[in-house]
Amino acid sequence: xxxxxxxxxxxxxxxxxxxxxxxxxxxxxxxxxxxxxxxxxxxxxxxxxxxxxxxxxxxxxxxxxxxxxxxxxxxxxxxx
Length: 80
What we know:
With 80 residues, the chain is α+β, with helices and mostly antiparallel strands. The protein has a single domain, classed as 3-Layer(aba) Sandwich (YefM-like fold), CATH 3.40.1620.10. The protein is built from two helices and three strands. The protein has a three-stranded mixed β-sheet with strand order 1-2-3, with helices on one face. The longest helix has 21 residues. The termini are far apart.
């Protein structure tokens, strides 16, 4: 189930960064930092970031295989 991400302001980060960092560590949920009512950056748990990157890598490789952009390697020489 998708939930809307937590948000905070750049000013709140300046005032209470430790509290927000601890919240991200505890919940493993990202916090979107807003500046001038626009999303500026996201603070997220590094393990979750790694998991997301792994998922994106798998999806990208599937797309490459689907579109024929992959090359079958028969030996280490084919890596060049």
